[in-house]
Amino acid sequence: MKNILAAIVVLLLLGAAAYAAFFVAPTDVKQGLIYRILYLHVASAWTGLTSFFLCFVANLLYVWRRQPKWDWLGVSAAETGLAFTTVVLVTGPIWAHPVWGIWWTWDARLTSTFVLWLLYVSYLVLRTLIEEPDRRGLLSALFGIFAFIDVPLVFGSIRWWRTQHPQPVIMGEPGSGLDPLMLRVLLFSWLAMLGLMTLLLRQRYRLEAMRGDLEIIQRELEAA
Amino acid sequence: MKNLDSLFAAYMIGWGIFFVFYVTVARRTSVLREEIERLKNSVNRGK
Q1: pLDDT above 90 coverage of chain A, percent
Q2: Which residues contact A218 (CB under 8 A, 6 or more apart)?
Q3: Which of these, A115, A127, A142, A208, could form a disulfide with A72 (CB 3.0-4.6 Å)?
Q4: Contact at 8 Å (CB) between A44 and A92?
Q5: Does residue A196 carry a pLDDT above 80?
Q6: Residues 6+ apart with CB under 8 A from A71
Q7: What's the rounded Cα separation, in Å, for the pair B39 and B34?
Q8: Would B33 be classed as within a structural domain?
């Protein structure tokens, strides 16, 4: 019952965020309608990075405490973050094409985001190659800590290097920034996405905990 | 209404990715639940 209620709340939040993105936020003078992808693209990007941060914390805790629950949280957050980053990598080119005239360019922001996606795909592939749970947990946690190094690079790429991708409009240079109403809609969209992330993460964590139970039963059967 | 089709496509694909992710997790959970039940029954039969 609690889960259904949480899902309804998240769906309502997402619906309200979509309504605000389409009908409340003002239209951008230069880009027109297409800029409204921002509320999906940027909110997904921030949520993906939040999820990878959770994965990083879980990986550190696993290395320190060696408790399976941190391994389960690590893989769940990695997979959830990957879903959000996939949305970023798909919606970015759809936005870029009418605005830049190209679908993709290998600038620092786009490349570091693509590398981030590849790193977490590798994290998940690595886990499938190791059967022994403790060894799998430790090696993937160490790899996850290494993969997180790319997150500050993604964040800093548009601040440190000249890129095709726009310069930051939030926490950017003086004079940069979003219209206050656009900013409020963006922050609300991020809140809705964080709700979705929590929902997906919980569901994925349950799956991983069940996998842990399955491994225990299998070991019992082998010992019998 | 320029680029309305691109905007619509971006949102549809974005929500589609989240939906597919949710469905795959739910399906994997259901398969695993059945597997656990099957193994638990095997363990109980063995006792």
Answers
A1: 78
A2: B39
A3: A208
A4: no
A5: yes
A6: A58, A62, A133, A136, A137, A140, A141, A208
A7: 9
A8: yes
Q: Is residue B35 part of a domain?
A: yes
Q: Which of A37, A196, A210 is the closest to B10 by Cβ?
A: A37
B2: which chain A residues are within 8 Å (Cβ-Cβ)? Answer: 32-34, 98
pLDDT category of residue B42 using cuts at 50, 70 and 90: confident
pLDDT at residue number A176: 66
Residue A196 to residue B17, Cβ atoms within 8 A: no
CA nearest to A224, candidates B6, B44, B34, B27: B44
Rounded CA separation A13/A192 (Å): 5
Confirm whether B9 is domain-assigned.
Answer: no
In a domain, B5, yes or no: no
Domain total in chain B = 1
Name which of A86, A87, A214 is nearest B35 (Cβ-Cβ). Answer: A214
Query: A224: nearest CA in chain B?
Result: B46
Q: What does the block give as tokens for A41?
A: 């693209």
Contacts of B34 in chain A (CB under 8 A): none
Task: Using the predicted structure, report yes or no on whether residue B22 has a pLDDT greater than 90.
Answer: yes
- pLDDT tens-digit map of A43-89: 999 999 999 999 999 999 999 999 999 999 999 999 999 999 999 99
Domain span holding position B31: 20-47
Whether residue A2 has pLDDT greater than 70: yes
How many whole angstroms separate alpha carbon A177 and alpha carbon A166?
12
